[in-house]
Structure formats: structure tokens, C-alpha cells
Amino acid sequence: MIDREQVLHVARLARLDLTKAEVERMASELSGVLDHIERIAELDLDHVEPTSHVVALENVLRPDEPRPSLPRERALADAPDATDSGFRVPSPGAVAADAS
Amino acid sequence: MSELVDLTAAQAAESVRAGDLSPAELLSAYRERAEADELGAFLWLPEDPPGAAGETVAGAPAAGDAPLAGVPLAVKDIFCVEGAPTTAASLILEGYRPPYTATAVERLAAAGAPMLGKTNMDEFAMGSSNENSAYAPVRNPWSVDRVPGGSSGGSAAAVAGGLAPWSIGTDTGGSIRQPASLCGLVGLKPTYGAVSRYGMIAFASSLDQCGPITRDVTDAALLLRHLVAGGRDPCDSTSVDFPEEIQLPSSERLDGLRVGVVSELSEASTIDTGVKAVFDATLERIEELGGGVEQISLPHSEHGLSAYYVLAPAEASANLSRYDGVRFGLRSGDGDLLSLYERTRADGFGDEVKRRIMLGTYALSSGYYEAYYGRAQRVRTKIAEDFRAAFERVDLVVTPTSPSVAFRLGERTADPMAMYMSDFCTVPMSLAGLPAISIPAGLSEGLPVGFQITGPAFSENRILAAAHALAQAIGFDSSPARGKAGAPAR
Questions:
Q1: Angle between helices B304-319 and B375-390 (to 10 degrees)
Q2: Of the four, A1, A100, B148, B333, which is 20 to 30 A from B195 by CA?
Q3: Rounded to two decimals, what is the model's pTM?
Q4: Pick from B192, B309, B330: CB nearest A37
Q5: Domain membership flag for residue B413
Q6: Are the C-beta atoms of residues B426 and B152 closer than 8 Å to each other?
């Protein structure tokens, strides 16, 4: 089960501004899915190693050779708002205040 | 003209090589049909079709001389193509034109299959019906009030509806195999790592694989051959060299082949009776062809769905954090930076994507991580072990592909869990990273039923050979018009 408060907490973590209706609906829908998922709680999984990846690969390395990167103009071409040297965003001040 | 679009892709390539057909003629026939698309299969067609002048996206040799002979390819809109709108059927990528092309698209173009257009899909590949597209739902050519499946629903509908000779899609938990099943086509999810994911917009990186959706097994083998032929892609560190060349299948018998039927998946109450009947008839056919059929157990496979709906959303919640309104795509909000992030994501993502981001964020959040993510990763290990044990007894494992035939538009949109059940038989293979194919095996209620065949990692040649022999014996007609007009329902 997941309640309204938890939905709001998770939505903040996920940077999603949910409407009131979405919060209500999400609480009931996620609870339904979690009910199903929680069946794995019944399994005996002690001493079982977790799998994060199915291909047994060690670190994949390549020679550190200089090569051209994406030109700045091209990188900025899709930006919703850009100056000629970077992406323009509003002040992050409020985030700092929020985190303090 | 109708004869031309009845050819399989391999047959069309053969006609080009024989000089009976020009690549330009082929392209314009499909282009015309794609422009008249009433299924909602395509999201975008190029203004100047590549290949029209005998050139391909990647500047490959003139199409007619190339191995794929200029037979055009429908590409799921999850693949980045330089300069072409690439949306993943999401509003949040509106206006985005990638500065580079996905390796899969580049390799197929270089082999002579130029891109015909970008196909519709569930937003960010999340869905089993294509109703989660931000642009339009896709209709199933077998019955236009039914879904084509998802998430590669546009790719499947385009091929089944004769708007494209073949297509590529992506499969995370069944997104190639299930729409292929619902549209009467062949869909192959390769072994994880076999095909480069570079330029393929990420949903769940440890599961996502690109693969073909085609009218027959030979076409699937032909596309796969050229998807893996270039070997490991230095741009995708999880890609690997495929250990052998993909063969075009020719076998017509299954002598000596040991086939395992997964009781937990095939006997489950979620499998519709009509689907079960076609499945059982197909098992008899395997025996007629000389194969041996035995029951096997994958004890943890029925928990695959639970593990999948923790792991895939968890990875998605991390992958989709990049969509924040700063560097590309949609931007909303006029306050501070935090509200820019929150408003952009609220306006740009659809309901299902939000639901999965929430589910994944919750599963990874402090206090819940071990109970959900940690346990799901352990279930994943058990499922992979189950398969390893099974493949000591049998050569291939079979199940129905989808528990049901194509359902009606709107039928499952109100109940996420009902929609997720579509993936019941396909997620275990994804979690274990195994290759799996769906082939059409018959009809139920006049609609196609898919049969899934899976094998050990990198056993694609074995799977394709068996699928080919079985498909030859079944003789399924992939044309919805002829199929509905009275193909015998087996």
C-alpha cells in the first residue's frame, strides 16, 4: 500500500508536479501494482546473488585518444533556450533554499 | 502494385537483384501506402525519401547492389536518426532532432535498407497496446477496433498492413514479440548485447534490445544478420561480438530436437482458451516434424512479471531523469529552476510514463530499496538459473507469446495491472537476457495467435531454424485481408 503522503514524497524525488487528481489516482494504481509485486516477498531468496546485468562483462576500456566532440552550435541547436555559449536556465536559487 | 507489396522483404530483394524491380519503384510503392496510412502506424516520413536516388542514409553503395537491395525499413521512433524528428512518441521530445544516428539504423542503411519512416509506439516503449502514444493510438490491420500490441505497435501494424516490407522495434519485456503476435507477424528479440543500443532511447538499459518485426522467419534472419554483422559497437559498452554468422534458415524438419513446454506459463489461468488451443495444436505439429515435446518447470518464471515491474521502472526512473527541459525538447514553467523541472516533466510525460517513474522512484527510495529492488534482482538470478537448468534437458523452450489475442482499444486502459499481464510469458526471457522469437501459429476468434520459442544465449541460429521449419508446416498467411477472408482457423 502507498498513501497520499508517500505519493507526494516520491513525486518530489522524481521532480514531477502532479495534480491533485493525479495524486489520488496514483495512490490507488500504484497500490494495485505493488500488491502484485509484493508476492516476491514470499520467496526464499537468502543466499541468492542479485543480478544487475546478464552479460558477464568486466570493465570495458578503450585507448584514451583525443577525437572531435559534438560542435557547440550543434549541441545547443535543440535547446529550448540558449545563449551562444550555453543553455540558459532560470536561477537555481530556490533549489538551494529548498535543500537547506 | 498490390503484388509488389505482397512480396516478403527477401523476395523483394531477390526481384531487385534479378532486375525485375528497381529499388526506387519499391520505395515509391511503399511510400505511397505509408502516406495513405489510416492505421496511425507512422509518426514521420522523410520529405526527401533516402534511397529515392539510389542513396541511403549512411551514404552506402547504390541500393540495388547492397545485400538488402534497397528494401526500405520502417524504424520505431525510439531510434535516433540524425536530423529526423525523434520523439519516442512523447511530448517531452517534441522538436528534438538528434545530432547522430543509432548504430542499428546506420548498419541496416549501410547494408541497403534505407529508412522508410518512423513508426508510432507507446511513449518511451512503456505499454502493451500502443495506446500510450502521445500522438495517436495505432490500429490493428486484422481488426481496426483492436490494438496492435505494444510497445512496437506502429512497426508491427505497418508491416501487417502492407505499409512497410519490414521493420525494427525494441523489446524490453515483450515489446517486439507481443505486437508481432497480435499482428500475425514474426518478431525476434535477440540475446542481450547482440545488437548495439547506441542511439536507441533508453527505457531499461539492462533489458532493452533491438530486433526485427517481419512477415516471415527468413526476413527476420536477414535483418538480424546485418544488425549483428558489424560486431561489437565501441559506442555501446554492453554490446558483444556475435559468435557466428546468422544463417538464412532452410530446415523443414525438427528431427531430434528436444522442446520443453513451460508448465508455469503455458498452463496459467491467464492464458485464454483460444490461445491455448492453438498452442497445443502447435506442439502436435512439432512432434509431426520429428521433434520431441516434454513438460519442464521454470519454478520462478511466474514471478518474472513482479520482478520486471520493479526492475524496469527503477531503471526507467533513472534513465528518464535526463528529460528536464534544459538541453532539448519541451520546456514548461516560468518560475525557478526546480519548477522548470517539475512543470516540464508534468506537461511532457503521459500517464503511464509518470506511473512507471513513480513506481521506480519508490522502489529505489530509502527504506524500500532492499524490499523491492534488491529482491527483484535476486528473483532475476533465480529465473536465469531456472533457464540454465532447463537447457540441460531441452534444446528450446516454448510458451504462448501473449495470453490473449488483440484486445479492443480502451479495453485495458483503466487497469494498469491488466495491461501488464500482457507481458506474462515474455518477461522471463528478457530478465535472463535470452533470445526469443514469436511466430504466428494460427487464429483464434479470427485473430492471430503467436507461439514463442526461446533458447540459450546466442542460439539465434537454432531458434530461427526451428521457427522456420515450424512456420513452413503451419503455413500461416500474414495478410490480414486474406486471413480474415477465410483462412482456416486451426
A1: 130
A2: B148
A3: 0.95
A4: B309
A5: no
A6: no
| Residue B68 cell numbers, joined | 538488402
Kindly report the length of chain A. Answer: 100
Q: Which domain holds residue B316?
A: 302-377
In this structure, the answer to whether residues B317 and B244 fall within a common structural domain is no
Cβ neighbours of B329 in A, within 8 Å: 78, 80
Helix then strand then coil, in percent of chain A rounded to 5, is 45, 0, 55
Question: How large is the ipTM?
Answer: 0.92
- Say if A64 falls within a structural domain: no
* Of B18, B44, B21, residue with least CA distance to B31: B44
Query: For residue A31, is it within any domain?
Result: yes
Chain A interface includes B325 (CB < 8 A): yes
Q: So which residues of B are the catalytic ones?
A: 76, 151, 175
- A50 inside domain: no
* pLDDT tens-place values along chain B, 490 residues long: 457 889 999 999 999 999 999 999 999 999 999 999 999 999 999 987 554 444 444 444 456 789 999 999 999 999 999 999 999 999 999 999 999 999 999 999 999 999 999 999 999 999 999 999 999 999 999 999 999 999 999 999 999 999 999 999 999 999 999 999 999 999 999 999 999 999 999 999 999 999 999 999 999 999 999 999 999 999 999 999 999 999 999 999 999 999 999 999 999 999 999 999 999 999 999 999 999 999 999 999 999 999 999 999 999 999 999 999 999 999 998 889 999 999 999 999 999 999 999 999 999 999 999 999 999 999 999 999 999 999 999 999 999 999 999 999 999 999 999 999 999 999 999 999 999 999 999 999 999 999 999 999 999 999 999 999 999 999 999 999 887 654 444 3
The answer as to whether A10 is a domain residue is yes
**Residue where a domain terminates, one of B377, B409, B438:** B377
My answer on whether B20 and B149 are in the same domain is yes
The rounded distance, in Å, linking the Cα atoms of B120 and B87 is: 9
